[in-house]
Fold this sequence. Notes:
By secondary structure, the chain is mainly alpha-helical. Helices cover 76% and strands 0% of the residues.
Amino acid sequence: MIKKNQRLIPFTYKLIIGLLIFVIMFGIAMVLGAANTSIKDVWLAMTSNAKNETLSIIREIRLPREIAGIFVGAALAVSGSIMQGMTRNPLADPGLLGLTAGANTALAITIALIPSTNYIGIMIACFIGAAFGAILVFGMGAMRKGGFSPLRIVLAGAAVSAFLTAVAEGIAIFFKISKDVSMWTAGGLIGTSWSQLQIIIPFITIGILVAILLSRQLTILSLNEEVAVGLGQKITRVKGILFVINILLAGASVALVGNMAFIGLMIPHIVRAIVGTDYRFILPMSAIFGATFMLFADTLGRIVHAPYETPVAAIVAMMGLPFFLIIVHKGGKTFS
């Protein structure tokens, strides 16, 4: 029934509906929160030079925060889609396969050893850490004959993530920087500034655009490597580029909001149920749905116990863990 409906409804209509839901969610996220604001206040803050306390809150606190949520959600969802396509593993996710744990560890090391480093230095450290975490996971997964089975990769990811998380916490305790590290790794959008966004957004934008340009090759790769080679695809080059994109997207996300698992797992499954298995459609829709989901999670975190905030990482985890268990139980085919 789903496949039949996928053929009946053109992708353009699905894209328009997805964008409409995103715009509505963005409006809700901008209006709701601890501070009392209205749609008129949001409109004035974004279209005029008028100044008052409410408009300043919207411009300097809420707007950069929600823009950060949009780009982080899109980055993690696209990264998860790429990983699931490359590995043909329905459980692949940047947070489950060592990328975010590696970036967190590198961040802790940087704060401990180079406390005066600027935001660009932290971001570069996160890129290096994400690459290191992924290399460890895939290296462990390929140690035995038979290579990258989905179960082996997930087990290796869990082991590496637990190890790197312990290393990060140990460094934080030893150097007495637990508070500084936890501000990053708690997975929150609090305190996001325009200067941070100016550095991070170009990396995420470039990563997503390059991924979309390679979406046709990723579709073929997700079916079968032998087929990809037979069709003249240079799979080593394509995999290398996609691996770098994953590092950029996961590293940039951690540098901005800290550890955020399950978004890259959930969104691709939901999107495939809507648009099918063609990554030319999956990647742009994953970006839209990932951004929308992150806005929803952040808004929920701000209003569920207002004026106090519930960490957005906790909100995502509460929704993501049951989803993960369902997919494991069904063998990865629940929503595909």
